[in-house]
Amino acid sequence: MLSEPSLVKILQCRAAQQPGKVVYRFLPSEPNGRIDELTYSALARKAQVIARELGSICQPGDRALLLYPPGLDFIAAFFGCLYAGIIPVPAYPSKRSQKVLGLAAIAKDAGARIALTTRQQQKTIQSRFRENEFLSQLPNLASDAVGTGEALSRPLESWQVPSIQKDTIAFLQYTSGSTGAPKGVMVSHGNLLHNQRMIQLAFGHTEKTVMVSWLPMFHDMGLIGHVVQPMYVGFPCTLMSPMLFLQHPFRWLEAISHYRATTSGGPNFAYDLCVERITSKQKLGLDLAEWNLAFSGAEPVRAETLERFSHAFSDCGFESTAFYPCYGMAEATLLVSGGERLQPPKVGLLDRKSLEENKAVWIARSAQIKPDCVKSIVGCGQSPLEQSVVIVHPEKKVRLEDNQIGEIWIQGFSVAQGYWQKSSATQQVFQGYLNGSDETSKLATESGPFLRTGDLGFMLDGELFLTGRLKELIILRGRNYYPQDIERVVQKSHVALPSNSGAAFSVDIEGREHLIVIHEVTRSYFRQLQAAEIAAADIAKSVRRAISEAFDIQVHSVVLIKPGSLLKTSSGKIKRRACRDAFINNTLNVVALDALGTFPSNSQPDLAQDAIADKTSEDLEYWMIRRLSQYLKVAPAEIDPEALFTALGIDSSIAVSMTGDLAQSLGVDLEPHLLWEYPSIESLAQYLAHHLAQPPQKDSLVTSSTFP
Fold it and tell me: Could you write out the three-class secondary structure of 675-693?
């Protein structure tokens, strides 16, 4: 390992010693498109050019909002900020169907001085910025316009390595999901280097490692694990767009096979998606024998998923011992704990009733066990380097013994500096002390300070097991959402929904977490609902559309309940856990229920047998209605072709997946963003019918390989 004090010096060193070595490769979304590459010297040069430009606009310590589509320009801009002493704030441009309020909240909270993007995105971003007062005043810079051509050949004597200490803030990682009160985690250069060393040790990475990733670069797992880690250790990483993965999951495993990747992974849902959507014919060309570390994190790791994936791809050379469950969070930079490499994950059964009472009672496997009485649990390993992970009683603040469930507390050099300009929240989360300790002491002792994760779990023989969440946080597809934010959007979605009268939470349904929304209706609407069921459907559609537009997530069930029946404390606080229990036990005072999964759908047909012969708008509509009914698990008759996709309640993963299915059935390549450009079945069918009637130009078979 290079004993350098910052990523800037590490990159400079690698650029001098290995100038022509490729560190990043980005795969095109279109088949047989151009593969972009960055060598160490090219990355260092681009970063210096961007830093010089930023230095003429900003001061060291200013914050720069990074708004990039997936690609290598984001990486150059991120390092360009580090080279300039500017604090990057990774974000993602909101889609046209979404408002910019969440992005504006992040930019304002960070006090962003400038926004960086690409030339291709700049006009769109400028147009979107006009929707918000703060963003409209924010300058923006296309970094790829200053990092090419003549600028790359001009002398850079004016650039100097910035003064970086271990406590200097490297970047702000905003926790995903919160639109009301975003919190920027202050990750220092010391935090970053310590966590990089932890990841290297835990994953066994060397310069011979080969990595493939589709994870979003603006998210902590993608940024720290797949952008920073390859440069830190000195191995190549092949990247692709998350949209490409969602549209064609096969492309992920195809890249692992083609580049002989040794490390890759993602949230639990990614493995489920591969099992569900990769065909037997596609598997024939895969060789996954070199893939010896398949990490799973960012959402609960499910034993059923590990078993299904191992079984589905064993003939491709995948070994079940490659699975590597891990646990991490932005407040701890990234990695907290990980399993033992090349060993099967530790899986056991817990008594479900005892688990709900925060007790870990192990159950021996037996044919007589009822599935609904037990819960499979997967261990998330140990902390690999100079870091303490303890289980603490959240109220008494005393350390608990093995098999006792409590809050997970963390102490170590990877724990971040706190939340940007939020001293109260920082003290509450980052300043946990065990009972009897001196909270005024500044020394890091066995008593504190600790990072209070808000997650529940227990330890057994040094292995960390996660059981739930103390904080009311909803985790869907690896992203965090705050129920208060969802409830705020819901109550504004329809006049029938009074304020402070709803609850949002997640429930495990058929092995996956789904969002549930319950809400009281006003007394006037309650009388209308009793007379006409159509009004309930109208309210549910408004709720689904509002949540889809604000958060890009799908609602499984919208439950309308009687006025005054929402469970609250005596002081008026919503009892979300009690509401969740009441939903599960069917004890809510339900007026109307609008839920997915009420129609028993069959498994998806083989796409090869599902080609669309006559490409008229009517045939296209019929195909999309049938396919969407399978995704939503509702009868085709319930899907209105004129309704907006957001009103139907689909999220981006379903939208992109359906675009991929449609492309394969048509035998052409389609942009993954198509459903946002043409936001209803009717409008999309009309566009496609017209487009396909034109003479063929550059359309290509989606079944062809990504690689030349």
Answer: HHHCCEHHHHHHHHHHHHH
Do 83 and 30 share a domain, yes or no? yes
How much is the pTM?
A: 0.80
- CA-based diameter of the chain, in Å? 78
Task: Please give the pLDDT value at position 704.
Answer: 42
CA distances from 376 to 227, 273, 294, 307, 402 (A): 33, 20, 20, 12, 18
Same domain, 244 and 182: yes
CA-nearest of 684, 665, 685 to 674 is: 684
Domain annotation covers residue 627: yes
The tens digit of pLDDT for each residue in 390-418 reads 999 988 999 999 989 999 999 999 999 99
Task: For residue 378, list its beta bridge partners.
Answer: 347
Same domain? For 174 and 60 the reply is yes
> How is residue 119 written in tokens?
């030339």
Question: Within a domain: residue 559?
Answer: yes
Assigned domain for 224 exists: yes
pLDDT in tens, 505-532: 888 887 778 899 999 988 888 877 765 6
Q: Give CA–CA dist 115/122, Å, rounded.
A: 10
The CATH number covering residue 52 comes to 3.40.50.12780
Residue type, 182: P
Strand partners, 114: 64
By residue range, what is the domain housing residue 175?
10-332
The pairing of strands 211-213 and 237-239 is: parallel
CB 706 within 8 Å of CB 31: yes
The whole-angstrom separation of Cα 312 and Cα 504 is 35
